[in-house]
């Protein structure tokens, strides 16, 4: 067996299952899960109809490069969304089976262990665990940069030593962030681009939450930031996006990467051998999804309504703020009483049948701290009524802790 597999840590939800082992929640309370970031809003009907209308595509082998129609629809969407010159669909766009598999596979394309035996992949902390797994299984090691609450949870890259940067081959950026919801500023991107120029590493920008936001201004994207700063070739930069959150279609496993044409060329070569082509049925439906914005506006309104109602309720008992974007609340749990994030989650489940994810499961001990400690992640993905019920139970539970 591949010895690198032994370095993988259990996924957060496996840790949560172990934490709850032997716990029986009250049967009179219906279970409510805020633990998993799985969209629960309805998938738009036109997407479902597009799938059934294109089932004849099952008789065809798909192209790894994807159809002209899909790549063109993605290029049009990028140009509209970020106010950019239209990317070249033939060289700067590549459809993928969801951003998760693409983020993982991209590390296998980029990391060069022959150049050094001590290659690093830099990740924010807390982070999406795929980044860590991608690092280990590419033969690199993850290097975590802690998110700083005083900097709107932006990692403090300025304090990373030069000898670390010299070993970094790939930087994973998540903006809007999971779990913090924080969005990088233009100044943040300028700093990262200058570091990339100096040390030669590639930037993979995970932007799957970009279309769920609460203000009037849409989150700044990586390609948008590069263009504003005069980096029109998107050198050493790829953006990863998906229909999962934008269109409530996680089961389609449909997304894209876009940016540096040379990186796209090499990633396409890897994926051709990897067997990662998207089904023609999903390609056809995806093209229509990227062309329609009305369902995205409606979806965003549903999230706004939930967060505007639930955040003030939870602020009574938890240290929590409305995030920049995304569908998570990242809350500190010790506002009223000292308690660990794991014990908070376990007791909440045991007494009120509400599931939240301990923040320490989403982070690693790095530079003397685990930045997820005493925090929980709540995914407000269910209906307004269900989320309100969960919030009221959390308020009651936390007040009880303080007595």
Overall body shape? globular
What helical percentage do the residues reach? Answer: 25-40%
Structural category is alpha/beta
CATH architecture of the largest domain: 3-Layer(aba) Sandwich
Level-1 CATH class name of the largest domain? Alpha Beta
**Number of individual domains:** 2
Computed over alpha carbons, the radius of gyration is 21 Å
Distance separating the two termini: 53 Å
CATH topology of the largest domain: Aspartate Aminotransferase, domain 2
How large is the count of helical segments? 14
Q: Care to count the β-strands?
A: 13
GO biological process, one term: lysine biosynthetic process via diaminopimelate
GO molecular function, one term: pyridoxal phosphate binding
EC number: 2.6.1.17
Cofactor: pyridoxal 5'-phosphate
Model description:
Helices cover 40% and strands 15% of the residues. Helix 4 crosses helix 10. By secondary structure, it is α/β, with parallel strands linked by helices. The chain is globular and about 60 Å long. The chain has two domains: 148 residues, Aspartate Aminotransferase, domain 1 (Alpha-Beta Complex); 248 residues, Aspartate Aminotransferase, domain 2 (3-Layer(aba) Sandwich). The chain has 14 helices and 13 strands. The chain has an eight-stranded mixed β-sheet, with helices on both faces. Strands 10-13-12 form a three-stranded antiparallel β-sheet. The protein has a two-stranded parallel ribbon with strand order 1-11.
């Amino acid at each position: 067996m591949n010895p690198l597999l032994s370095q993988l840590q259990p996924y957060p939800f496996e840790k949560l299952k172990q934490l709850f082992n032997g716990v029986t929640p009250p049967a009179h309370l219906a279970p409510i899960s805020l633990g998993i970031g799985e969209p629960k809003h309805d998938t738009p009907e036109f997407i479902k109809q597009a799938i059934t209308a294109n089932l004849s595509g099952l008789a065809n082998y798909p192209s790894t490069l994807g159809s002209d129609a899909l790549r063109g629809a993605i290029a049009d969407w990028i140009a509209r969304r970020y106010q950019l010159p239209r990317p070249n669909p033939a060289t700067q766009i590549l459809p993928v089976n969801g951003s998760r598999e693409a983020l993982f596979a991209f590390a296998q394309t980029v990391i060069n262990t022959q150049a050094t035996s001590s290659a690093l992949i830099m990740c924010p902390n807390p982070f999406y665990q795929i980044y860590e797994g991608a690092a280990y299984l590419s033969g690199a090691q993850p290097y975590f940069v802690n998110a700083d609450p005083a900097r709107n949870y932006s990692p403090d890259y300025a304090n990373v030593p030069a000898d670390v940067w010299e070993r970094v081959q790939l930087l994973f950026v998540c903006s809007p962030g999971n779990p913090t919801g924080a969005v990088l500023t233009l100044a943040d991107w300028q700093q990262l681009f200058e570091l990339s120029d100096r040390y030669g590493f590639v930037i993979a920008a995970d932007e799957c939450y970009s279309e769920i936001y609460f203000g009037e201004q849409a989150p700044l994207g990586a390609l948008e930031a590069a263009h504003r700063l005069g980096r029109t070739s998107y050198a050493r930069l790829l953006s990863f996006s998906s229909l999962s959150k934008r269109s409530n279609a996680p089961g389609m496993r449909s997304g894209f990467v876009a940016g540096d044409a040379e990186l796209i060329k090499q990633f396409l070569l890897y994926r051709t051998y990897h067997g990662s082509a998207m089904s023609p049925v999903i390609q056809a439906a995806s093209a229509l999804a990227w062309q329609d914005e009305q369902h995205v506006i409606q979806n965003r309104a549903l999230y706004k309504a939930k967060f505007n109602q639930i955040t003030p309720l939870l602020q009574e008992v938890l240290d929590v703020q409305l995030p920049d974007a995304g569908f998570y609340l990242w809350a500190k749990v010790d506002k009223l009483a000292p308690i660990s994030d794991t014990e908070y989650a376990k007791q909440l489940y045991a007494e009120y049948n509400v599931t939240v994810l301990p923040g320490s499961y989403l982070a690693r001990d790095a530079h003397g701290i685990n930045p997820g400690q005493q925090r929980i992640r709540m995914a407000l993905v269910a209906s307004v009524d269900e989320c309100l019920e969960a919030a009221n139970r959390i308020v009651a539970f936390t007040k009880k802790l303080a007595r």
